[in-house]
Design goal:
There is one protein chain. Helix 1 packs antiparallel against helix 3. By secondary structure, this protein is mainly alpha-helical. The chain has 3 helices and no strands. It is about 55% helix and about 0% strand. The protein starts with about 20 loop residues before the first helix and ends in a 5-residue tail after the last helix.
Length: about 70
Amino acid sequence: MSEIIQGSTPEVAPTRWPRALRRGPMETVATILIAAGVLMLLQPFALVLYTYSFVTTLAGVVMFTIVSKFPD
């Protein structure tokens, strides 16, 4: 059995994921997409923005759900 030495940190294997595809940046993109969809829903000026607001919000939610499984 291996003993754990106090004060040592376990080695973490480096991930092979590109930095842009990690959870943090991608969750930020998904959150911005959700916020953009809500703003498109609430604006009173352009009907085309209102038309695509639900699809935009849904895409952000689906993206956030998938990205939350990515490594850090």
